[in-house]
Specification:
Elements lengths: L15 H14 L4 H20 L10 H13 L4 H20 L26 H8 L7 H16 L3 H5 L6 E2 L4 E5 L5 E5 L2 H12 L21 H14 L9 H14 L4 H8 L5 H21 L1 H6 L8
Antiparallel strand pairs: 1-2, 2-3
Helix pairs in contact: 1-2, 2-4, 3-4, 5-9, 6-8, 6-10, 10-12
Length: 317
C-alpha cells in the first residue's frame, strides 16, 4: 500500500471570523446592495467581537442560548427595539448559512425566536411644521435652492434618502414629472412628482451648470454626489432653524409624513405600496394606521353629533 510521505496536513479550524467573511462573500455573490452588505458586515462584526469576549471562537461552539444572550446584551445597552430586532435577524441569517456550510452542526436558529417589536405610532410633521421647514433653506443661494428641492422631493415622492442621493441626471425627467430610482434589492421603479416639486427641481436645475448624463443630480459645492449623511444633517438643521420640537427631523420622517398625507388625501394602499417601493403591504399598513390616528383626532374635534348636541356656553352679563 502506497502512503504519502510525512504526516497528513492538519485540517484548519474554522473560526467565527472565517464564517463571517464567507457569509459576506455570499451576500455579495447574491448581488445585494453595497449598503446592505456594509450593514451586515457591521452587525456580524459586533457579534463576533462579543463572542470573542465570551470565549467563543468557533462556529461549532455556538448555541442558541448564545444568540439570545447577545440580543439581551443589545437591549441592555439601550438599543432601540427595531435595532435589536435587526441584530436578531442578521444572527439568524448568519447561523443558517453556517449550518448549510457545515460549520454549525445543529441548526440552532430553530429554537431562537426573534424579539417582538412594539407597535408604536411614529410622530409626523404637522402642516405648520412642514411650512416652517420648507421656509428654512436660504433660497438666495444655490445651496438653499438645492436643499428646498430635496425637502420637497422627499416629501412628495416618498423615496428613501439612499434612493435620492443615487439619482443621476438622466433619472430626473422634468418634462414627464418622473424619477427613476434604484430601490432595495437593486429594483428600479418610476416615481412621479407633483407641480411643487417640479418647480423646485427646475429652479435647482437652472443654477447647476453642465449636468450631463451619468453625473449625480444632487451635488455638493465641489461637484460631487451628495451623501446620505449630508442630507440627514441638512434636514436636521432645517428642523432646528424652524424650531420644530417633538418630532424627529429626518428624511425618514418626511417619508412617513408624505405617506400619511397621501392616505388622508384619498390615495389607495396599492399605489402607496408602489410609491414606497415595498414588496408587501405589511409596512404600508403602518402608514394607514398613522392616518387612522389623524382621522380619530379630527373626528373628536369635528364630531357631527358632538357639535349638534354641544351646549352653548352661557352668556355673561
Amino acid at each position: 500500500m502506497v502512503r504519502p510521505i510525512g504526516r497528513p496536513m492538519a485540517r484548519k479550524t474554522v473560526t467565527l471570523e472565517d464564517l463571517r467573511e464567507e457569509f459576506l462573500a455570499h451576500c455579495e455573490a447574491r448581488n445585494l446592495s453595497g449598503r446592505t452588505v456594509e450593514w451586515y458586515g457591521d452587525r456580524t462584526r459586533r457579534f463576533t467581537d462579543w463572542c470573542a469576549s465570551q470565549g467563543i471562537t468557533a462556529p461549532s461552539d455556538l448555541r442558541w442560548t448564545d444568540l439570545e444572550q447577545f440580543v439581551l446584551d443589545r437591549r441592555r445597552q439601550g438599543f432601540a427595539p427595531n435595532t435589536v430586532h435587526g441584530y436578531a435577524q442578521v444572527l439568524k441569517t448568519l447561523c443558517r448559512q453556517g449550518h448549510r456550510m457545515g460549520y454549525i452542526p445543529e441548526d440552532i436558529t430553530t429554537r431562537f425566536e426573534l424579539p417582538r417589536v412594539p407597535r408604536t405610532i411614529v410622530p409626523t410633521f404637522s402642516d405648520e411644521q412642514l411650512q416652517a421647514m420648507l421656509a428654512a433653506p436660504d433660497r438666495r443661494t444655490w445651496v438653499g435652492i438645492r436643499d428646498r428641492a430635496i425637502l420637497l422631493v422627499l416629501l412628495d415622492t416618498l423615496i428613501r434618502v439612499s434612493e435620492l442621493v443615487g439619482l443621476d441626471a438622466e433619472d430626473v425627467d422634468l418634462d414627464e414629472g418622473m424619477l427613476r430610482v434604484m430601490g432595495k434589492g437593486r429594483k428600479e421603479r418610476d416615481v412621479p412628482f407633483g407641480r411643487a416639486a417640479a418647480h423646485a427641481l427646475r429652479r435647482y436645475r437652472s443654477v447647476v451648470e453642465d449636468l450631463r448624463p451619468g453625473d449625480p443630480f444632487f451635488i455638493t459645492r465641489y461637484g460631487r454626489r451628495t451623501s446620505r449623511w449630508a442630507v440627514q444633517q441638512m434636514v436636521a438643521n432645517c428642523g432646528r432653524t424652524a424650531a420644530i420640537e417633538g418630532v424627529r427631523c429626518s428624511p425618514h420622517t418626511l417619508r412617513h409624513t408624505g405617506a400619511k398625507r397621501f392616505i388622508l388625501a384619498g390615495g389607495d394602499v396599492f399605489t402607496l405600496q408602489k410609491l414606497l417601493g415595498h414588496t408587501t403591504l405589511v409596512m404600508v399598513r403602518r402608514y394607514v394606521e398613522l392616518a387612522d390616528v389623524d382621522v380619530r383626532a379630527q373626528h373628536q374635534r369635528f364630531s357631527p353629533a358632538d357639535s349638534l348636541l354641544r351646549k352653548p356656553s352661557p352668556k355673561r352679563g
